[in-house]
């Protein structure tokens, strides 16, 4: 069985915890898009581990991890993450594979990301500043450098030289910033090439052979569908396909081989960075959600914007990913609220709409139409069986499921691995 796990909102839905839990049942765990802009927090016993680039599922012993061709890789960040794991006695040696076709994040990508954000002023995207956008832009404009290019030193030098002559002109003329040195980057990346060589292979071949042999694969999406460059709140998005479609293009596993799509959704909504957020709460309740949910970015430490669950948003996610089930996370953060709202429609230019407008201006001016549900006083923290949840919590969960049109198979009631209600495990047949 091959399962794609995606974020349904604007990222930070708790994908790390759900992926960690389900990886126990998979043989291969695969990242297919994004880069070290992701921040996946996993709590195992007393330990909290944050991963950015390495598949979360590798924290489970004996699993094989793959970083697919659709990921943009900063080799420095990758090597640092490998050594952080080594320091915690988690070895990835012999069980981590990196696609030879994946594109590299170069030092100038990060510089361009930061400079471009600076010039945008209050129109900035609020990127993670990791060079993600410029790296994908180079890939699409066919001037990127791939992992395999590092192993042909003449070709690498030639491509780097061509690219740097363009980049240094841009830095000088537009940003009035100093140039990058060809020799410095060349030497730095040749050193990385030696260190990552043991991990680099044709991962499309590896994964398709694994499927032929009947292995179970878990594709780990980073970010969320509404940060997807095609389906998100453009231009306030990331630069990759974070939806389920990316799992195919980002790995070389054909779409007919992907069996199920599980969407991870928070019991409320958060967003980090700029962009429209119709159900945002800028009052005390928003502050309560941020405090109780510890809503601070795992990659940048920025406070996350918080708001009510947006059923319009997640219903669209269910549709375009043809999702088969949902995992609802952070339910316990809502404990103690006297009432809880769900955004069921928007008011745009005086009209009620029940679909997310594509126009940025419409989305920015959309006000939420809310439906209120009674809250619950009891603590749901750590509950592992559905019938033990307060009736009002069950009603809230069923309302979400009805409004978005998808069954909810998992409910997470704390950050800990075991504290999850599993109504149906996608890897176990009924
Ligand atoms: P995980 O996998 C939440 C957001 C940034 C910014 C926009 C573009 O932890 O859910 P980028 O650096 O990608 O060019 O920034 O996307 N963003 C995320 N928000 N969770 C993430 O990852 C994110 N990765 C990028 O804040 O708004
Ligand atoms: Mg995150």
Short précis:
The protein is of the alpha/beta class and 430 residues long.
Verbal overview:
The structure is a single chain. This protein is an alpha/beta fold and 430 residues long. It has two domains: 314 residues, Adenylosuccinate Synthetase, Chain A, domain 1 (3-Layer(aba) Sandwich); 95 residues, Adenylosuccinate Synthetase, subunit A, domain 2 (Orthogonal Bundle), CATH 1.10.300.10. It has a ten-stranded mixed β-sheet, sandwiched between helices. Strands 14, 16, 17 and 18 form a four-stranded mixed β-sheet that branches. The protein has a two-stranded antiparallel ribbon with strand order 3-4. A hairpin with a 7-residue loop joins strand 19 and strand 20. The protein starts with a strand and ends in an 8-residue tail after the last strand. Bound molecules: 6-O-phosphoryl inosine monophosphate (IMO) and magnesium ion (MG). The site of magnesium ion has 6 residues, from loops.
